[in-house]
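Letters spell out the chain; backbone shape is given numerically. Take this protein:
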Amino acid sequence: MTRTQMVWAILALATGGFAIGVTEFAIMGLQREIVLDLGVSYGQGGMLVSAYALGVVVGAPILALMGAKRERKTYALFLLVLFILAHVLSFVAPNFETLLAGRFLSGLPHGAYFATAALMSAQMVGPAKRGRAIAVVLSGLAIANVSGVPAVTWTGQQFGWRWMFLIVALLAVLTMLAVAILAPRQDAPAGATVRGELRALANQRLWVGVGLAIIGFSGMFAIYTYLSHVAVEVTGFNDSALPWVVLIFGAGMVIGTFTGGAATDKSVLGTVLVAMILVAVFMGLFAMFAHVPWLMLVLLFCVGVSAANLGPAMQTHLIDTAPKAPQLAASFHHSAFNAANALGAIVGGVTIDMGLGLRAPAYAGSIAAAVGVAITLYAILLTRRAGEKV
């Protein structure tokens, strides 16, 4: 396989990440429209975020296990079909309950797709550049926040929130065509079995890594889930400015994903430690200065950069903790990421409902990231005890 073919194959896989990023994050920008249209509360609107995240948490390990022995390209295409069908259901949903079910089903293939795409990309480039290859796959999520999410948010505001689901389904169809044409076939590792993958669960480092990812990312989602409310009701922006606010956060995530990938190839847990410290600091400052428009945007950008640095590093760390079960370990990153999504949405909603104000989720997120720093130090200790590179 030539270098050019390899690049195009990885980009094709990243396109799926772009579609996933649009559906995962655009729902937050359109939450106000959905709440008003369906006549539900803010708390119920937040459940659309949590339902998707729960789907990822449930689906990632189950579908990853199902794919442990399967040829990876074919399995990636199968997961995209499931993703498309769930979005068609969401598009035609006649009520809130059906939409909630569609969101849950949409989340099921998320983690398994990213796990499969990350492993395919890492195998194509080899160990020395795997962090950067995984970053490219994950960059689809970040780039979606810069282009896809603002565009779909604007489209939803102008023509109705249902268009988001149709657009995402079409993006997934394009991804299927690109992967089918450009990605190489890639057999599962020799001797891979479901039982072997399950045996890898008896691993302290793996579970510490999962806990680290949940705690570390939850703060970001505590902010992001209620970002539209903060931007309008605290900072004072108009609704028409929300796509630009989301774009600034997304731009930070794009930069952070690529810098995090490069840093991961030098030190996996070192990257996690620095990023977690920065997340704690910037979230605290965001909460303090959310009423100052220009400063709120600068700090939101910084939160995006530092939080996105965690992505490639955490994905790589979890793969390293269970080398005999790469498919399952890789999927746990996305289970943890979306457990954090659900947790952040719930914690943010609870703090607001307690009367602590719209800044409270950011303060809670800063505290969560500080706890993440402590967990990272413990993960570094365990890695050194195992005689492995930090």
In short: Residues 288 and 359 are 8 Å apart (CA to CA). The chain has a mean pLDDT of 89. The domain at 3-385 is CATH 1.20.1250.20 (Growth Hormone; Chain: A;).
